Amino acid sequence: MYDFAIIGGGIVGAATAWQLKARHPGARIVLLEKEAECGAHQTGRNSGVIHAGLYYRPGSLKARFCKAGVRAVIEFCGEHGIPFRQPGKLVVATDEIELERLQARLARAQQNGIDVHWLDQADMRELEPHVAGSAAILSPSSGIVSYRAVTETMLRLFTAQGGELMTASEVVRLSEDQSGVRIRTRRGLIRAGYLIACAGLQSDRLARIHGLDPGVHILPYRGEYFRLRKERSDIVKHLIYPVPDPALPFLGVHLTPMIDGSITVGPNALQGWKREGYGHLNFSVRDTWDMLSYPGFWRITSRFLGTGLREFRNALSKPAYLKGVQKYCPSLSLDDLEPHPVGVRAMAVDRHGAMVDDFLFVESARSLHVCNAPSPAATSAIPIGEHICERIEAKAAS
Question: What structural domains does the chain harbor?
Fold first, then answer.
């Protein structure tokens, strides 16, 4: 019998397990991961950006967790010798509409207490001579790291403290009574006094097999990247982002200097037909049926039909993809774009087709499910884990 069981070996699950064990060293804690290795999905397939918190609604969990998370992840990396860099981010406006949006983003960042600076065209070109635009905001604290490396370190700390890690342990059934939770995995039965589920792309399904209604379905959005050829890896020094459209949930295709010295271009946001589909042909009957039978899918699809068709066109056409990048980095050519692994983002959508824009937790007497952990979840993983520990401790004390 375990005191706590955690499902999900991504960065949120790892941060929670490590901190929970540190706070309760005498507790028996197990972390269950369905894959053979941890961090195989969203954690290991994102841009690796340490977000400063420029975009998030003041007072939201996103804004709160991200601001604390920047400090926490940088401190964690410094303490454990994990390579990271803080080149800073430029958010670049290229027309009048984007200029108005950029000013609104500046005001929001200032509301959130984020260090940002307005750059006119001359200032911007001095910092980034290959970047075109009329103005930009600079976020000096934005950075880059390998979140897989961060996750692996957290898990080493967890197991060194006596925590147990069980990989290749997919959970297929959950049931709860007054004494705890029964967890049936493909390797056998486990009992725990309390369950924490941090299952990312499978989070809604785990809540449902536990008998809970998360109020959302997870819809997968495929993010396709390119990498610049090595000879162009010095084209920018900062993270270069377009000004996001506030009506859309994605930040747009950006240039990201990675921790290994390469530069990635992307991601786009293409409707996925498989929650964990990373190959060229990605289709799951189960995942597709889940979407097509859900009213929220049709409502969000109709609302963003034009955007979806543009993303589909860009996914089929490398020149169309490039055109979006040339808007702010015009010297790039088709020959500069090389293949790079794709990712899949979990988007939580309710029955009315509304995207859940903040973290979502669903609880029972003996469990807490993280049913939505959107970007900046990787940046925010340490304060998210702390928040989960505090909620569990408060429940136990009441």
Answer: 1-83+144-216+357-398 (3.50.50.60)
